[in-house]
Design a protein that fits this description.
By secondary structure, this protein is α/β, with parallel strands linked by helices. About 40% of the residues lie in helices and about 10% in strands. A 5-stranded mixed beta sheet has the order 10-7-11-6-12. The protein has a 3-stranded parallel beta sheet with strand order 2-1-3. The two termini are about 40 Å apart.
Length: about 475
């Protein structure tokens, strides 16, 4: 009740006072009846198109969630931190809008615990959870615990706050059991981009990556030539290392994998029956593999590591490009960076690639269990949550991470919009645990200096056998 009064009070404070006496006027109003006066347009209160009359009568809305993700999902306390407070304001708004009370049930980061918890709830039909938010790579969706989201009212998966790059790659035979949208801050936070040092760009008189992206000319060859052009042996020892010299580009494991996905490799392709095939090994795939192979193994200006050790080196001004997540911008190293930096999406592979693509190293998905008491409520709240985050929370996340770079540079906002709107989760990547990790083994082979033909021979048979088992599992689901 206190939250409701606080919310209403906040709204009243935003309204003009009604107590002031009207000012006297001597203006002639005789023509008022003959003059059409158009009402000023007002901004729509909610981004979604849910019915205004939805009310769930004080219901609890229980979410099974990872312990580490609680504060990024639901907060009800203002603490003076702008992202938290934006989430708290949104939480209060949704609770009052639908007359619900959010309840979080946190679980540790453990696949077995999650699987057992969800299975027990479904078997007992206890209605304990209105939505569950597991990690994608645990494979819990294969247990048959979830409802087909396409059959539940209130979802509108064509809207901009749902991730088409996930939903289009996880639908089987017309059924969608999991979905990803802007309710998850990991959707943008774990998206990889290319950071660039503006000072080095200007000193080397290179093309501005922002301009290249906007003109559609941000290609691998351009990106790689720029990276190679700035490599400098600063200590004169004839060797190149990030510790002692200026390098062109650095990335870790996920950043390297992202090149294959963002250059247009599609491991999974939908067949005519609504299932999937692993029909990717062709001339273009080999070409992309070899291009990334050469960049990774034959360039003097590329630095690679399994961790994020390169972020401080980029912050010190010793490299032109850094491939990392958007969350890296919230770290102290880039916040304190002396040189100015920008961020752009991965380049396109070549002129044949129509759009820039983004790679996300992982996120939670949303699912509604078969034991949920009110699936329509589950759908409405998650629809509204995704829409509200898109409208209010994510812009604040941008602002917090990039400070003046976001608020003063409209191009930065444009780049982030491109990155967020083009996230694509490849079918084989989403189901890597069930497909012998086929999607990730190719970059792992590149980093191990393995040629493409022998790599493919070692993967092909087992991956297709796993695919048949996966498809059979989905065919048998009710």
């Amino acid at each position: 009740m206190k939250r409701k009064y606080a919310f209403l009070l906040a709204l009243l404070m935003l309204l003009p006072s009604c107590a002031a006496e009207p000012e006297e006027t001597t203006a002639d109003t005789s023509a008022a009846a003959d003059t059409a006066v158009s009402e000023p347009e007002t901004e729509k209160l909610y981004l979604d198109n849910l019915p205004e009359e939805l009310n769930f009568g004080g219901s609890n809305f229980n979410m099974l969630i990872r312990e580490e993700k609680v504060n990024d999902t639901i907060s009800e306390e203002m603490i003076g931190e702008i992202v938290n407070d934006a989430i708290a304001e949104r939480t209060l708004m949704l609770e009052d809008r639908f007359d619900i009370e959010f309840g979080l049930v946190p679980l540790p980061f453990d696949a077995g615990t999650w699987t057992n918890t969800i299975a027990a709830s479904v078997q007992a039909a206890d209605g304990a959870y209105d939505v569950v938010l597991p990690d994608y790579w645990w494979g819990i969706e294969l247990g048959g615990y979830f409802m087909d989201l396409n059959q539940i009212s209130h979802f509108d998966f064509d809207r901009e706050y749902w991730c088409a790059g996930w939903n289009e790659n996880t639908e089987f035979y017309g059924k969608l059991y999991t979905a990803v949208g802007d309710w998850s801050l990991d959707l943008i936070g774990n998206t990889m981009g290319i950071y660039f040092n503006k000072t080095i760009i200007e000193e080397a008189q290179l093309a501005n990556p922002y301009d290249l992206v906007k003109s559609g000319d941000w290609y691998h060859d351009t990106f790689f030539e720029m990276a190679e052009s700035v490599v400098t042996d600063l200590n004169g020892d004839g060797k190149y290392s990030l510790a002692n010299d200026r390098m062109g580009v650095s990335y870790q494991l996920h950043g390297g994998r992202g090149f294959l996905y963002c250059y247009g490799v599609e491991f999974g392709k939908r067949d005519a029956n609504g299932g999937w095939t692993l029909d990717y090994y062709d001339e273009r795939f080999v070409d992309i593999y070899n291009t990334v192979f050469d960049m990774h193994n034959k360039s003097k200006g590329v630095s690679y590591s399994f961790g994020d050790a390169f972020i401080p080196m980029f912050a010190s001004g010793k490299e032109l490009f850094l491939v990392s997540t958007f969350y890296a911008a919230r770290g102290s190293e880039l916040r304190d960076m002396e040189d100015d930096f920008g961020i752009v999406p991965y380049p396109k592979y070549d002129e044949k690639q129509a759009d820039y693509l983004s790679y996300n190293l992982g996120t939670s998905y949303m699912a509604i269990t078969k034991s949920a008491l009110n699936p329509e409520m589950s759908a409405a709240v998650m629809e509204a949550l995704s829409a509200a985050n898109h409208k209010t929370v994510i812009p604040v996340l941008y602002e917090d991470a990039l400070k003046d770079k976001y608020s003063r540079d409209p191009v930065t906002a444009e780049m982030l919009d491109i990155m967020q709107s083009r996230i694509r989760f490849d079918f084989a990547y989403v189901h890597e645990a069930s497909l012998a990790n086929v999607a990730n083994k190719y970059f792992d082979a590149i980093s191990a200096n393995q040629p493409v033909a022998s790599t493919h021979r070692s993967i092909e048979k087992i991956a297709k056998r796993c695919l048949e088992n996966l498809l059979e599992t989905y065919r048998e689901m009710e």
